[in-house]
Design brief:
60s Ribosomal Protein L30, Chain: A; 441 residues; 2-methylcitrate dehydratase PrpD; 6 strands; 8% strand
């Protein structure tokens, strides 16, 4: 069987199987986090401009945007998908080097609205999207991640799987939907190595492309079933040595959605072990930022490649700057939305500390990537004390998970400025009961 057929066979079996309560609960956690990610993204310039460009597809259609505006399903998937990634607070699955929620849940929500699906059906679609797409990301490996933005490429498969489930595709149609989605998969890392607005558009297009591929398959459009593992397929064209032989080995037994990472800071997740390590040293030794003589951070290479800005000039660059977020954390105690306000972005205390931070690749930590995201932080104080800490995981990783209360607090914190605190709390309560709800928010 080709990989597309392996996944399609699982999707057919999945449709008739009950899911463990734990798995459904983790799906709800992912959805709560998705809503927390969307609201702060709504005001970002690329999302606002995207709505303007897609005006002809708004105020009509069977789906809707996050604030309730009617939209065609594809426009809703695209806009909501971009918004979910725009503020850099969306979830991730480490081994696939990928943010699954932005595209998967956006496509699932658009399809669910269009088909009148229940909350339980929506959650099941999210689970299927996570399980299939993360395995494709794992198979593609670091060879893919070197050049491609997995949230745009792999995200297409999360979207098509979730939408295909809700459109009730047959096993054959599902395989063809995956095959067509593979030809839509795109998103280059170079797109955000300079200050640009392209990055959040990647999961938006992934959500739209996956939904479209499912819709086309439902009408009879076929794809090349060996598009993933063929001699000129995705694995060869977009990776190095992709191994498809075991992609279905643990499907239905090891649910990847239970190992999702949820962000505890605002910014690029590759910088988070450095933030956590620095804050842990400050907690243990009670020093102020102005008492620091120097900081050395050792971490894995992709962290330096992506969180690459040493002297950021814009909000976007600051979100991808290890020196900026570490200095901000030590000066202010956290890295939340306020970290990127104009008065914080160029604050003299933060900028002065940034000049005393050095970041290098630690070969041992690089060898553990992508399964672990770690950092070694060494801080030398002006009184001569030399403090060191290995941060093996990020807070929010499966080893140091955010609680349900943490996730609900994140939703209320980020949604309240848009819809009000009472509405945000009511939304959270509704999301925790999605598995018993006949309707969706």
């Amino acid at each position: 069987m080709f990989a597309t057929q392996v996944f399609a066979r699982y999707a057919a079996e999945f449709s008739g199987q009950a899911l463990p309560a734990e798995v459904l609960h983790h799906a709800k956690r992912a959805v709560v986090d998705w809503y927390a990610s969307v609201y702060p993204g709504l005001s970002r310039e690329p999302v606002r401009l995207l709505e303007e460009v897609l005006a002809e597809d708004l105020d009509r259609g069977s789906a809707r945007l996050i604030l309730g505006r009617a939209a065609t399903a594809r426009a809703a998937a695209l806009i909501n998908g971009a918004a979910a990634h725009a503020a850099e607070v969306d979830d991730s699955f480490r081994e696939a080097m990928y943010h699954p929620g932005a595209a998967t849940i956006s496509a699932a929500l658009a399809a669910a609205h269009s088909t009148g699906s229940t909350g339980q059906e929506f959650l099941r679609a999210v689970v299927l999207g996570y399980e299939i797409s993360t395995r494709i990301g794992v198979a593609l490996g670091r060879g893919h991640y070197k050049y491609w933005h997995n949230t745009g490429t792999v995200g297409t498969f999360g979207a098509v799987a979730a939408a295909g489930y809700l459109l009730r595709l047959s096993e054959t149609q599902f395989a063809h939907a995956l095959a067509t989605a593979a030809t839509f998969a795109a998103g280059l890392q170079q797109a955000f190595r300079m200050d640009s607005m392209s990055k959040p558009l990647h999961p938006g297009r992934a959500a739209e492309g996956g939904l479209l591929a499912a819709q086309l398959a439902a009408r009879g459009i076929t794809g090349s079933l060996d598009v993933l593992d063929g001699e000129a397929g995705l694995g060869v064209a977009m990776s190095t040595g992709a191994d498809w032989s075991q992609v279905g080995a643990t499907l239905g037994r090891d649910f990847h959605i239970t190992r999702t990472t949820f962000k505890n800071h605002v910014g690029c997740g590759h910088s988070f072990p450095s933030i956590d390590g620095a804050l842990e040293l400050q907690r243990l030794h009670c020093f102020r930022a102005d008492e620091i003589d120097s900081i050395h951070i050792g971490t894995y290479k992709p962290a330096l490649d992506i969180a690459c800005y040493m002297r950021p000039a814009t909000v976007n660059e600051a979100q991808f700057s290890i020196p900026f977020v570490v200095a901000t954390a030590l000066v202010h105690g956290s890295v939340r939305m306020a970290a990127y306000a104009p008065d914080r972005l160029h604050a003299p205390a933060t900028r002065a500390l940034m000049e005393r931070i050095q970041v290098t690749v630690d070969p041992q930590l690089d060898a553990s990537f992508p399964g672990r995201r770690s950092a070694r932080v060494e801080i030398v104080l002006r009184d001569g004390r030399r403090l060191a800490h290995l941060q093996p995981n990020r807070k929010g990783d499966p080893e140091l998970p955010l609680t349900d209360a943490d996730l609900e607090g994140k939703l209320v914190e980020f949604a309240a400025p848009v819809i009000g605190a009472d509405a945000a709390r009511a939304l959270a309560a509704r999301l925790w009961t999605l598995d018993t709800s006949e309707t969706l928010p």
